[in-house]
Amino acid sequence: MADTGRTRQSGQVVEDLTTSLAERIANGEFPLGTWMRQAKVAEDYGVSRTPASLALSRLEAMGVLERVPNRGFRVRYPSPREIMEVFEVRAVLEGHAAYLAAGRITEVQLQQLWEQVAGFRRVVEMIREGADSEAVGAPWRHSYSTFHQTLFEAAGNSQLHEAAEALYRKLPRKISWRVLRGDPRSLTQHADEHEDITTAIEMRDGAKARQSTIAHIEAARELIIAHLPTPEPGRTRG
Amino acid sequence: MADTGRTRQSGQVVEDLTTSLAERIANGEFPLGTWMRQAKVAEDYGVSRTPASLALSRLEAMGVLERVPNRGFRVRYPSPREIMEVFEVRAVLEGHAAYLAAGRITEVQLQQLWEQVAGFRRVVEMIREGADSEAVGAPWRHSYSTFHQTLFEAAGNSQLHEAAEALYRKLPRKISWRVLRGDPRSLTQHADEHEDITTAIEMRDGAKARQSTIAHIEAARELIIAHLPTPEPGRTRG
DNA sequence: CCTCTCTAGATTGCATGCAATTACATCTAC
DNA sequence: GTAGATGTAATTGCATGCAATCTAGAGAGG
């Protein structure tokens, strides 16, 4: 069972399934190419196959899964080309978000950004001190998503946020961490870049904020591209 | 029946339903706020309620419909705020597409853009000559979507294209035409702006192409905002 | 005349059943 | 031993049934 625990309200099953599955896939619980069987999902969550099928279909519409007719859904295997494209669009969107944020951010939100920068620093320190990279993955991802969440809130354009979220969903988040965790130098650079962005926003320098964000995402893209795992065609059963 | 006519392949019903409904909604066939009943959709397409429900759920995931628990789906009523935000993100995305296109476009694609510019001119001419605005709405929308389709193809980033498409779906296309059709001056300006963009791309001037595109979309946004219809709360039955 | 309560009808949301399709293993022919 | 045909198990995709839920309207009470 992967239930959330709280009593489920009527008419919310599909919503819960979709959210939960999206989260689990993003966290890398299901390897790329894994077949998501209706019956398995239904059993896992204690529901029938109808809502399971609905949730899987929604995840396909969201770009998380791919559908093979009469064979079902599996976790999408983004091609190197697709990954590059996603990063390029992310750079444009987040760059604009940083630009907007520089002109609108509140003191509270700015402080929130600084806290996450500090969070990145702590993770870097822990890695340098030999902490288990798997254990600090969660706090790293937490700082990462909080930073971006705050950035987009400060930008004040929810459509911009949604467009970026749709892109995030196309790449499992764990990919980034798998690449970064073994490379303290890149980790430090990553933290530095977040500080650059935050500083530019604090200075209310929109152009610089945009430029720093684009540079940050392009650096991340290069790192990922260089460390792409070799694709392995997913098995059909299982 | 709103079937496409060709024999339906097995395992394609939901796909067809989703595409067809998205198209019909985008074309304004269902007024904003209209309730999309499962039974009605199922009957219209000669299928059971299961695939109808699936298609509606997918359309919600795509941002076309909104869901009210235990009451169903209805065509989303974008708020003025949301419309403004969509246009702002469109400006960023399409601006970047124009920038990329300037560096990569082929001769054939460039010619395609010019053809659509000519198409806009023809529509403007027909309106000036007193043509029925409803009748030339279709060719106008055709030129519009072909122009953008070609622009994004030339940009060569399918993620960029998908992100923009997702935004288009959030606003019924007929809205734009309803605003423009009664205003020959704006129509002419619209055509001029498309020509500016195409010229910049032809000159391989990426910065200018981006700037022209952003100016174009911002002009469209201002026009739409100024002509927003007064929202009328959708009825619950019907 | 207004407000609250109750009821009937409509609609969704989920469970289940079954035919169509597919993958995989086995068997046969050469 | 290999290529092709055949059978079986697994899986999807759609149809249908039914309980839970919601709306609208009638009727009672103030």
Automatic annotation (TrEMBL), chains A, B:
The keyword Transcription regulation applies. It comes from the Bacteria. Keywords: DNA-binding, Transcription, Transcription regulation. Transmembrane segments: none annotated. Gene3D superfamilies: GntR ligand-binding domain-like, Winged helix-like DNA-binding domain superfamily/Winged helix DNA-binding domain. The keyword DNA-binding applies. Residues 11-78 form the HTH gntR-type domain. This is GntR family transcriptional regulator. It comes from Streptomyces iconiensis.
